[in-house]
Design goal:
Layout: E1 8-10, H1 13-23, E2 30-32, H2 39-45, H3 48-58, E3 65-72, H4 79-87, E4 94-101, H5 105-112, E5 117-121, H6 125-134, E6 137-140, H7 147-153, E7 158-160, E8 175-177, H8 186-196, H9 198-206, H10 215-223
Parallel strand pairs: 1-2, 3-4, 3-6, 4-5, 6-7, 7-8
């Protein structure tokens, strides 16, 4: 179909490389079109009232350091289960939110009886955005999902699993990659990041031009 197509898009740099290498497409016919966030939903979710209500509902104080993770929690995201295991012994002022599809009864039971972990189940887009906006830091220790880019659009510091093929997500230090970090326990790692890296990460995240990751601009780019 190449002769009938003006442009092929990959949604990550690694997928752009795959198109070029696997199908031998001309360089000028392949481009990066990033995934992103729904700016209309962002406008609805991004209010102090929503964010305060979210924290108050879960009885999370403004002093608590809130971390969020989630998605479709299957074998490709089994590291989330390890994160939950490590969080059992986390300081009480450090909280963890887990959202998405989790069917493992052992971990559902752990989350239900924890004092510093919360399982929210599957959320709609607005609810996900509100939860991210109410959090201090996001972590995604599994495979890539659209939440990786959405966190950037919401201008939150984030930790991703791997750097190779996702270098475009590092915008002046807003994120860290687990593949670059030395750690044996997630909580110890998160405490160290909070103390040493977090201020720089949040400054970088807040300086991001969110509109570059909004669907409205991504759509305009594809229509060019």
């Amino acid at each position: 179909i190449s002769r009938n197509v003006k442009m092929f898009y990959g949604v990550t740099p690694s997928r752009v490389s795959f198109l070029r290498e696997r199908y031998k497409l001309n360089l000028n016919k392949v481009n990066l079109l990033i995934m992103g966030a729904d700016d209309e939903v962002f406008k609805l979710a991004n209010s102090k009232t929503n964010i305060d209500f979210f924290r108050n509902k879960l009885k999370i104080s403004s002093d608590d350091f809130l971390i969020i993770t989630g998605g479709k929690i299957d074998e490709s995201k089994s590291e989330i289960l390890r994160l939950i295991d490590d969080f059992i012994n986390a300081p009480i002022e450090m909280k963890l939110i887990v959202f998405g599809s989790l069917e493992n009864s052992k971990y559902l039971d752990i989350l239900r009886h924890s004092q510093n972990m919360y399982y929210l189940g599957w959320l709609n887009t607005k609810e996900v955005y509100t939860a991210i906006l109410a959090s201090n830091l996001a972590i995604f220790p599994g495979r890539h999902s659209v939440y990786w880019e959405q966190v950037i659009a919401l201008r939150k510091p984030v930790i991703y699993s791997q750097k190779q093929g996702f270098e475009h997500l590092d915008i002046g230090g807003n994120c860290l990659f687990l593949s670059d970090l030395k750690y044996t326990n997630y909580v110890d790692m998160l405490i160290e990041i909070k103390e040493k890296n977090y201020k720089k990460m949040i400054l970088a995240a807040k300086s991001i031009k969110s509109e570059e990751f909004f669907y409205s601009n991504i759509a305009k780019e594809s229509l060019k």
